Amino acid sequence: MKLIMKNLDAMKIEYVTAVVEDGGIQVDQLFFHDPDGYMIEICNCQNLPVLPISTCPLKNQPPPFYGKGKNCSAEDALLMMENLVIDLLRISI
């Protein structure tokens, strides 16, 4: 987080920080606006535990997005999220 703040200071981009606590776990947050005016949030959300939304789906069939017989495995989803985080870090540095 300090490295991101240092880079934002060097680029003279205004930002605000906050610390929130959820269930005894503290999460640092940093907010700034991109050139288009959209607000960007960067946080150390990896501190929060990952909880499943539901262990019992309402329908026992793959979502139509993946087409017939195709399903996104947990490993694929994890790889996509890791790549997203790496790409976001590259953008922010």
From TrEMBL:
Molecular function GO terms recorded: transferase activity
Xref: Gene3D superfamilies: 2,3-Dihydroxybiphenyl 1,2-Dioxygenase, domain 1
Record keyword Transferase present: yes
Top-level taxon of origin: Eukaryota
SUPFAM superfamilies assigned to the protein according to its UniProt record, in alphabetical order: Glyoxalase/Bleomycin resistance protein/Dihydroxybiphenyl dioxygenase (SSF54593)
Keyword Hydrolase: no
Classification via InterPro entries: Glyas_Bleomycin-R_OHBP_Dase
Keywords of this entry: Transferase
Protein name in the entry: Metallothiol transferase fosB
